[in-house]
C-alpha cells in the first residue's frame, strides 16, 4: 500500500472536507433551565448565533445516559439522553432545528468501553456463565495476578479490577468505572452496529468515535516491560483485527447512510494513520490524530530566544508528514479540545498584550491549512486556561485521580498542581463566556465548573460589537475559507521550512495559489518568501496593516503577525 504519496488530482470533493467541525462540550455551552449545567435546549437556543458565525457542522461530546464518572465518556445507555442534558424530545428538536438551518450534527460515541453501570456490565459481573460475561475482557483468578497494565485514570494506576462474584479481574484502560468491551465477540459488534443505526435512522450526520485504536488490543495479555514506553502501545491499542472491525463497521453501517466519521486517533503515527482513512479501504473518513497535542511532551523548544515554549520545527514537520501520509485520504487539524489546554494558552500566548493577536494568528492557521478544522467552542472568543490553584476546584476524574495517586505514593502534589494549570483538562471545560455578568450569561445558577474571571472582557456580547475582536476575525476567516475553494482543496507545501519562528505554507489549487505566513513567536521575525510578494493580495491579516513586501529578500514580521496572501 502506498505510504507518503502526494494527493492525486482525482481527490474526491465532500461536504466534510469543506466544513469546519465546531465542538460543543454540552455541559459548558448554555444552561437553559438554570441548574448550572449546560443542556441540549441551551444549544438549540444558540443555533442562530452559531449559524451567524458561519458554522455548519456541530460535534457534541457524549450526550447519552451516564453516571458521569468521566463526564459522559462512561455510557450506561446508548439510546437515552443524559437527564442533565434533557430528553429525547429535546434532542429531536435540536436535530430538527440544526437541519432547518442547513447545519449538520455529529455525535460522539464511546465504543471502547461502557460505564460499569451499563446493564451489560451489571449482568456480566454476576457470573462467568452469564451471557454478557464475554462482552468484556477478563483475567481469571486461577491464572494468578494479571500482568500489569497501566490505566489512564485509575487512582492506583492499575487497569485491572478484581470482581469477586466471577473470581476474575476486568480490564479498564481508563477509569475503573469504564470497563473495556470485548470487540472479538461478534455479539458485541452487532450490538454496536445497532446503536449506530439507531442514531443514523434518527438523522444524525455522523460520529466522532472515541479512542478508536483501543478497540483492538493484544488480549493474550503478555508480560510487558513498561520501561520500554512507548513501545508498549501495541499492547494497548492498534491491535489485531482493528482494521477488520472498522471495515466491517463501514460495510454494515456507514456505507449505507449519508454520514461522516472521524476516529479519535490517540497514539497513532502517520505510518499507521493512513490506514484508517485510505478511501479504497472503506473504514473511516477522518482520523483525529494527536500530532499537535503531543508536541510539547516529545520535544524541547528549538531556541529559547524565539520565545516559543515548544518546537515549532517539530510542529511543522509533523503536519507536513501527516499531509503526505494521508495520500488520497483527508487530514484533520486542531489545536485544542476538551482534553487539552485552551489553544491560545498553549500554542499562542494568553498574556494581555498578546492574547488577541496570537488567537487571531492561530485562527488563520487552523482555517487555511489543508484538512478539516476541528474547532473547540470558545476559542473563537480567545478563551484561555483558567489555571485553578486548588485540587477541590477541579471536576475532572483524570486530574483528581492522579492527585490521589500522588498522595498515596507520596509524590509531589504541588508540582502536579502547577502542571495542571498548564495541561489540566478542565481548562478547556469552563462555561462558555456569553457576556460579562456574574456567570457569564451561561446560567443564573452557580455553574458546575467555575467561570473564568476574564469573562468580563473575553465574551461574545462584547466581541460581537467590536469589529476588531477575535470573534469577528474568526467570522471573517470562516467566510474567506468558504469563498476560496482552493484554500480547501489546494495542495500544501511548507515554505522556509527551517525557520524556527515562522510557519509558512503554500496552498496550490487549480485556480489560485495562496501563501499563509504566521509568526508563532512573541518576537519580531524575518521570513524569506523566496518569491516576489509586491503584487500579492493580502486577504487577511491580524495587524492593522500588512508588512511591506520588497521585490525580493525577507520581510519583517511583528510578534504573532499572520498574513494570508493570494498570489498574483
Ligand atoms: C477520549 C476522550 C476523553 C475521555 C477518554 C475516555 O480521549 O476525548 O475525554 O476521557 O477518551 O473515554
Ligand atoms: Ca441545565
Automatic annotation (TrEMBL):
<dbReference type="InterPro" id="IPR013780">
    <property type="entry name" value="Glyco_hydro_b"/>
</dbReference>
<dbReference type="InterPro" id="IPR017853">
    <property type="entry name" value="GH"/>
</dbReference>
<dbReference type="GO" id="GO:0004556">
    <property type="term" value="F:alpha-amylase activity"/>
</dbReference>
<dbReference type="InterPro" id="IPR006047">
    <property type="entry name" value="GH13_cat_dom"/>
</dbReference>
<protein>
    <submittedName>
        <fullName>Alpha amylase, catalytic domain protein</fullName>
    </submittedName>
</protein>
<dbReference type="Pfam" id="PF16657">
    <property type="entry name" value="Malt_amylase_C"/>
</dbReference>
<dbReference type="Pfam" id="PF00128">
    <property type="entry name" value="Alpha-amylase"/>
</dbReference>
<dbReference type="InterPro" id="IPR045857">
    <property type="entry name" value="O16G_dom_2"/>
</dbReference>
<keyword id="KW-0326">Glycosidase</keyword>
<comment type="similarity">
    <text>Belongs to the glycosyl hydrolase 13 family.</text>
</comment>
<dbReference type="GO" id="GO:0009313">
    <property type="term" value="P:oligosaccharide catabolic process"/>
</dbReference>
<dbReference type="InterPro" id="IPR032091">
    <property type="entry name" value="Malt_amylase-like_C"/>
</dbReference>
<keyword id="KW-0378">Hydrolase</keyword>
<feature type="domain" description="Glycosyl hydrolase family 13 catalytic">
    <location>
        <begin position="23"/>
        <end position="429"/>
    </location>
</feature>
Amino acid at each position: 500500500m502506498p505510504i507518503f504519496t502526494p494527493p492525486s488530482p482525482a481527490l474526491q470533493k465532500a461536504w466534510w472536507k469543506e466544513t469546519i467541525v465546531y465542538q460543543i462540550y454540552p455541559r459548558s455551552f448554555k444552561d437553559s433551565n438554570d441548574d448550572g449545567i449546560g443542556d441540549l435546549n441551551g444549544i438549540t437556543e444558540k443555533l442562530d448565533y452559531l449559524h451567524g458565525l458561519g458554522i455548519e457542522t456541530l460535534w457534541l461530546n457524549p450526550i447519552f445516559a451516564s453516571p458521569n464518572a468521566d463526564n459522559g465518556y462512561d455510557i450506561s445507555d446508548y439510546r437515552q439522553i443524559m437527564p442533565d442534558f434533557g430528553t429525547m424530545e429535546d434532542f429531536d428538536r435540536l436535530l430538527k432545528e440544526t437541519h432547518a438551518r442547513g447545519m449538520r450534527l455529529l455525535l460522539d460515541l464511546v465504543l471502547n468501553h461502557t460505564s460499569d453501570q451499563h446493564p451489560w456490565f451489571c449482568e456480566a459481573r454476576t457470573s462467568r456463565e452469564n451471557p454478557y460475561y464475554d462482552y468484556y475482557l477478563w483475567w481469571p483468578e486461577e491464572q494468578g495476578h494479571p500482568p500489569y497494565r497501566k490505566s489512564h485514570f485509575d487512582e492506583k494506576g492499575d487497569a485491572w479490577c478484581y470482581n469477586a462474584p466471577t473470581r476474575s479481574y476486568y480490564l479498564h484502560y481508563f477509569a475503573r468505572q469504564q470497563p473495556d468491551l470485548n470487540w472479538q465477540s461478534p455479539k458485541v459488534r452487532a450490538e454496536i452496529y445497532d446503536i449506530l443505526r439507531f442514531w443514523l435512522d434518527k438523522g444524525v450526520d455522523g460520529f466522532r468515535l472515541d479512542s478508536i485504536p483501543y478497540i483492538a488490543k493484544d488480549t493474550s495479555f503478555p508480560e510487558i516491560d513498561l520501561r520500554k514506553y512507548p513501545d508498549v502501545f501495541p499492547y494497548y491499542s492498534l491491535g489485531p483485527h482493528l482494521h477488520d472491525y472498522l471495515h466491517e463497521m463501514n460495510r454494515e453501517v456507514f456505507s449505507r447512510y449519508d454520514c461522516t466519521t472521524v476516529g479519535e486517533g490517540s497514539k497513532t503515527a502517520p505510518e499507521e494513520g493512513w490506514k484508517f482513512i485510505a478511501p479504497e479501504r472503506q473504514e473511516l473518513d477522518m482520523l483525529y490524530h494527536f500530532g499537535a497535542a503531543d508536541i510539547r511532551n516529545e520535544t524541547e523548544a528549538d531556541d529559547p530566544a524565539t520565545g516559543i515554549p515548544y518546537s515549532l520545527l517539530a510542529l511543522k514537520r509533523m503536519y507536513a508528514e501527516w499531509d503526505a501520509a494521508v495520500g488520497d485520504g483527508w487530514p484533520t487539524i486542531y489545536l485544542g479540545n476538551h482534553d487539552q489546554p485552551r489553544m491560545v494558552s498553549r500554542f499562542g500566548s494568553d498574556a494581555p498584550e498578546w492574547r488577541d493577536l496570537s488567537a487571531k494568528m492561530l485562527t488563520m492557521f487552523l482555517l487555511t491549512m489543508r484538512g478539516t478544522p476541528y474547532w473547540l467552542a470558545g476559542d473563537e472568543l480567545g478563551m484561555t486556561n483558567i489555571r485553578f490553584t486548588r485540587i477541590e476546584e477541579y471536576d475532572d476524574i483524570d486530574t483528581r485521580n492522579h492527585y490521589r495517586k500522588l498522595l498515596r505514593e507520596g509524590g509531589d502534589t504541588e508540582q502536579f498542581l502547577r502542571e495542571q494549570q498548564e495541561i489540566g483538562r478542565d481548562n478547556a471545560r469552563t462555561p462558555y463566556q456569553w457576556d460579562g455578568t456574574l456567570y457569564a450569561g451561561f446560567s443564573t445558577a452557580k455553574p458546575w465548573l467555575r467561570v473564568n474571571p476574564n469573562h468580563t472582557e473575553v465574551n461574545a456580547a462584547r466581541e460581537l460589537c467590536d469589529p476588531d475582536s477575535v470573534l469577528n476575525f474568526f467570522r471573517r476567516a470562516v467566510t474567506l475559507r468558504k469563498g476560496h475553494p482552493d484554500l480547501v482543496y489546494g495542495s500544501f507545501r511548507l515554505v522556509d521550512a527551517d525557520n524556527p519562528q515562522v510557519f509558512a505554507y503554500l496552498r496550490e489549487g487549480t485556480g489560485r495559489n495562496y501563501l499563509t505566513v504566521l509568526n508563532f513567536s512573541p518576537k519580531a521575525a524575518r521570513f524569506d518568501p523566496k518569491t516576489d510578494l509586491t503584487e500579492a493580495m493580502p486577504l487577511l491579516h491580524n495587524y492593522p496593516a500588512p508588512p511591506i513586501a520588497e521585490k525580493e529578500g525577507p520581510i519583517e514580521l511583528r510578534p504573532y503577525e499572520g498574513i494570508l496572501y493570494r498570489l498574483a
